Amino acid sequence: MQKSEFTPEEDLMIQREFEALLDDYAHTPHRQKVELITHAFNFAYKAHYGVRRLSGEPYIMHPLAVARICVQQIGLGSTSICAALLHDVVEDTDYTVEDITGLFGEKIAQIVSGLTKISGGVFGEQASEQAENFRKLLLTISEDIRVVLIKIADRLHNMRTLGSQPKEKQYKIAGETQYIYAPLAHRLGLFPIKTELEDLSFRYEHPETWQEIHDKLEAIKAGKLESFEVFCKPIRERLESMGYSYTLKARIKTAYSIWKKMMQQQCSFEDVYDIMAVRIIFTPNESMSEKDQCWMIYSAITEIYRPHPERIRDWISTPKANGYEALHVTVMGKNGEWVEVQIRTDRMHEIADHGYAAHWKYKTGESDDSELDKWLQEIKDILAHPDKDAMEFLGTFKLNLFAQEVFVFTPKGEVKTMPQGATALDFAFMLHSEIGEHCIGAKVNHALVPLSYQLKGGDQIEVLTSNSQHPQKEWLKFVTTAKARNGLNQYFKREERKYIKHGERLVNDAISMDKDLAANHDMALARLLSYYNMTQPAELYAAVGQGEVRLVNVREIVFPKKPWWKRIMGNDKTDSLTGESLENGAKAPTGKEAKEEDKPKEKKKEPHAIVLTDENLGKEYILSNCCHPIPGDEVLGYKDPKGQMFIHKVDCPEAALLKTSFGKRLYSATWNTHRVQSFVETIELKGIDKFGVFIKVLQAITKDFHINMRAINISSDNGIFQGTMEVYVYDRSELDSLLKAIRKIDDIKEVKRVIVDQ
């Protein structure tokens, strides 16, 4: 961070931002504690005085912005505002948590302490290893949920100001945001924040694509808002005749949402039909239930416009796991376009905007536990059995962050919420880990199904168990919930500890049975590890305990007839364990000499930017098989522990994990190729099987584009043909032009690029 005195203009800007914060706070229903907030601001201002962010902006503007997000977008009160203003004081200055406790009380200090524990360099040198920090963040759920909410606000402001960071840092931070923070905001019901985080991540990961979609959106927005007014006119008249106080809002999709739909449906921007939705927010009458009144408004709308029979979503009867409630219906407008209408009460809207903070405000009693409360309890349960591998924990937690829900029934008719794609085994673990461990199958709608059966909405499920049943490693392939995966991993670790303990006893017994081995126990163990190509004693103990390694020739391994140094170290003349000369009286380097030899050579610092050329592709830089990047794709580089540089597409699923956890090994990458190398790409085709249609496809590929093909696999069934073609292309632009030309052929209904392992 930079440091310099603030100018009078900057001091005025800071003061205006603080007054805007107080104005935001004054418009909330919270009990006004302006004096406390002013005290926190003055303290933070002095603590950060003269300090600047990378952009040159006074650092104090960051905590002020975070505090405003907490008020405006999450609806938090004075305790959270003070904690947001102070959240970097302990981390970045000489003040301690004890100082905060003395000045602001225990509760604010506890939240600041929680935020300090999970800070540590989102923008610093230690920016890569974030999985452990994220676990610390979740640990605070059991202390105070406000820590997580403020951290999300902090991340949102960091994303809004990400432009001042180097390209490789942008990839890392945007990837981490997309992988963890956006889903976390979604799960806590913070929909506007989740949407903005996704769009900002997309903007920095795919700047050109984001700009292209953004410009197209801006071009049609005026027309969409005009059609919104035409669409809403009869709805306004009906709602007024029903006597409701209401607000009608237009919701325009973000660039990210549109791009995601384009990718899922392999369609163009112009083919995304639901760019606009209409939101009805009304104040319900006290004489009737909210649910009944939502359905009354639904009935009124469907008298005006014809509804789509398969696009009705009732999130009122059974709210989403994150607390979201609304009634959605898609109707056909007068201009022939489908429009989604979302019907909510004021209370439902506040929960949809402010998430957990509003959800907590509307709770009516201890027995009023929602699916969100159950999810938070599940996180606490997972944290109660910590996993030493932070990355494994992160993956386990991520499993059901963004899942859609299905509703199933127990044999007694109780409704249970499960993530979409959950299996019978997931359901068993949801009931209890003991039931999951001993599950042998289930009955769904009174019919026997296997553990891997995927639950469907409305299923009634009965779990079958047996005391003789124990978890199998294959189960990890089809469980989808964090609770089931965590339960299985805990079981396997318990079993592994048993094997390690048993194996350790067997190894020690084998060594102690021979006097020479027993006298050199540590040397014997080290040579056994080297012989079996292992690094940790626990690896050897586990292998022996499970019977994978049998200790039948321990003495020969430790004291081999053939010189051990030749087998292990090639031409080295010295036994590395004893230091004895093994040939011609040569001695191993010892003492200072050895230390000097062992000292690693200082590495040259490499710039975190690479240029991909025809000369270095496949030699210095390896194109990853998981996503098959070609020139023109947006890519990044990842240097593995062995020093090899792999090139991934920016949106590759594997790259998403790398961005989250290995930021320091990421490199921004650009192409500078000249159509020397060609790359094999796979095209998937679907269409109407009419005479001559495939000839037109081949003509486009070979005659119009002069592109060579490696393989064709086409089949036809009931008048529909589909298949794949492998073609040689120089870059992304050539491939896109080819796909565009094939799409124009009559009777071709779908054509897209697909990734196939080669």
Written account of the structure:
This protein has 758 residues and is an alpha+beta fold. The chain folds into five domains: 2-205, Hypothetical protein af1432 (Orthogonal Bundle); 208-360, Beta Polymerase, domain 2 (2-Layer Sandwich), CATH 3.30.460.10; 492-581, no CATH class; 609-671, no CATH class; 679-754, ACT domain (Alpha-Beta Plaits, 2-Layer Sandwich), CATH 3.30.70. Helix content is 47%, strand content 17%. It is built from 30 helices and 21 strands. It has a five-stranded mixed beta sheet. Strands 13-17-15-16-14 form a five-stranded mixed beta sheet. Strands 19-20-18-21 form a four-stranded antiparallel beta sheet, covered by helices on one side. Helix 19 crosses helix 21 and helix 21 packs across helix 24 (537-545). It is globular and about 95 Å long. The two termini are 47 Å apart. Residues 120-130, 364-368 and 570-605 have low confidence and may be disordered.
